[in-house]
Amino acid sequence: MHTKNRKLNKEELELWKLVTKNDKILGNYTKNVEKDNLFNKKEVLPIKKEKNETLEARKNNFLSQNIQINNRMKVKLERGIIRPETRLDLHGKTLIEAKQVLITFIKTCVESNIRCVLIITGKKKTLHGSKGLIRENLPIWLKDKGMYNYVLFHCYATKRDGDDGARYILLRKKHRVFNG
Of 30, 50, 65, which one is at a domain's C-terminal end? Predict the structure, then answer.
């Protein structure tokens, strides 16, 4: 496995020093600091600098913007260890009907504090593999502006729950959706 050696920019180095201030230092911090920020603006979150803002406040702001699901939870969901509390079957619905039913279903589940759901889309077997309009559009719908705040993670279901004709969806907690 290759590791990419890149120079840290000054803000990253300051943040790293703050995070590791209580650690036992075995070597010296790197002196290779990047002069110009060559990163793509989409990859690096902007850090707003205010007059009285401390490095600690900037660190907390950075961490709060990057709250994600951890790998352990992802693996559990992908393997079907986290069992869905309820399910929705979208067979026989048009795209418009399916999207509307999905949105109301997910919002109702979040209101009811249901965290894991199973959405059955079905799949149409063709010579070129599994197809299906609802199956192909479901991930796009979950990334929409209206649904993005409700969905934490989604993946194909395991074989016992419908294989790639169904999806597990892990929903955010109610207080995380409406406050953030």
Answer: 65
Q: How far apart are the C-alpha atoms of 44 and 42, rounded to whole Å?
A: 6
Residues 102 and 90: beta-carbon distance below 8 Å:
yes
Question: For the residues 102-131, what does the mean pLDDT come to?
Answer: 86
- CATH number assigned to the domain comprising residue 110: 3.30.1370.110
Range of the domain at 94: 71-179
Q: What's this model's pTM, rounded to 2 decimal places?
A: 0.59
- Residue 44 and residue 121 in one domain: no
What is the count of structural domains for the chain? 2
Could you give the CA distance from residue 23 to residue 129 in angstroms, rounded to a whole number?
Answer: 52
- Rounded CA gap, 83 and 120, in Å? 14
11 burial class (0-12, 13-18, 19+ CB within 10 angstroms)?
A: middle
Please write the tens of the pLDDT for every residue from 69-110. Answer: 788 888 988 898 989 999 999 988 899 999 999 999 999 999
CA angle in degrees (0–180, nearest 5) for 174-179-180:
105
Cα 23 to Cα 94: distance, rounded to the nearest angstrom: 57
**SS (HEC) of 115-157:** CEEEEECCCEEECCEEECHHHHHHHHHHHCHHHHCCEEEEEEC
In-domain check, residue 85? yes
